[in-house]
Amino acid sequence: MKSFSFEIKHRLGGQLARTGVIRTPHGDIQTPAFIVVGTKANVKAMVPEMVEGVGAQAVLANAYHLYLQPGHELIEKAGYLGKFMNWDGPTFTDSGGFQVLSLGSGFKKVLAMTTDVEAEIAIAKKGQRHAWVDEDGVMFKSHLDGSMHKFTPELSMQIQAGIGADITFAFDELTSLVDPYEYQVESLARTHRWAERSLAEVKRLRAERPDKPYQALFGVLQGANYEDLRKQTAEFLGDIDFDGYGIGGALEKEQMAEIINWVNTILPENKPRHLLGISEPDDIFAAIEQGIDTFDCVSPTRVARNGAAYTPHGRVNMRGLKYREKFEPIMSECDCYTCQNYTAAYICHLLHAKESLAGTLLSIHNERFIIKLVDDIRQSIEDNVFYGFRDDFLAKYYTK
Question: How far is CA 339 from CA 54, 113, 355, in A?
Answer without folding.
Answer: 12, 36, 18
